[in-house]
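Field notebook, page 231. I keep forgetting to write these up properly, so this time I am using the form the group agreed on. The chain and the ligand, S-adenosylmethionine, are recorded exactly as supplied. Prediction of the bound pose follows.
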Amino acid sequence: MTSRPGELPTGDEKARDVRRLFDTIAPRYDLVNRVITFGMDVGWRRRAVRELRLPGGSLVLDLACGTGDLCTELSNRGYRAVGFDFSHGMLTATATAAPVVQADILRLPVRDGGAEGATCGFALRNVVSLAGLFAELGRVVRPGGRIALLDASRPDHPVLRAGHSVYFNHVVPLIGGLLSNRDAYAYLPRSMAYLPPAGEMRSMLREAGFPDAMRLQLSGGLTQLFVGTRA
Ligand SMILES: C[S@@+](CC[C@H](N)C(=O)[O-])C[C@H]1O[C@@H](n2cnc3c(N)ncnc32)[C@H](O)[C@@H]1O
């Protein structure tokens, strides 16, 4: 990250820094994910895909697919998955058999109403404009289609929240440094500041065309999952 310490980049600078960061950590991204979440990330993605509740064979776009874990999960559930990500490094490290496309998820190369569903795993705080992303979801998902969006969260319970804060702010950068890149994994907790409060995100999704949008808390609030149906 090139902005001054304590500051978070915005706009084009953010997009450039995020892409560079993921290009850098791509080779060991999956390993670090498994270690820092104690393997729980696998269950979170599985839950997101389960919440889609679409007919088998539905086309589901996985936005910010990274190394493709959600694409694989979607394929395993009988969906036709296509992944989109702008990091060449992450796409090169993919292990999924689903097709993946290098693209900015704020400008998807997909026609209006072209998909039955969309997922997004742990990338909401990485985009330059969350409203822009939600508008793009509203554009590409056809009426009756479903979305399932995952991102990190902080537990509500004060004790869990305190423990989580120590782990996320101090232990995760340490593990990330040992296995991959310390700066990148120090950015991870800082980037939580990009996420608006849950109620605001739900309202934004409702305005973007998902009137039943709701938020589920997973694993005691370590992760949040937004689900909704396109009106
Ligand atoms: C934390 S990773 C998540 C990867 C994957 N979804 C997962 O569940 O492991 C965030 C991903 O978002 C991608 N990303 C962020 N902003 C993007 C954008 N505007 N367009 C495309 N990809 C983007 C990054 O390149 C990175 O691969």
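OBSERVATIONS:
- Strands lie at 59-63, 80-85, 100-102, 115-121, 141-152, 214-218, 223-229.
- The pocket of S-adenosylmethionine is lined by residues 18-19, 22, 64-66, 69-70, 85-87, 90, 104-106, 121-123, 126-127 (CB under 6 Å).
FOLLOW-UP: compare against the apo run.
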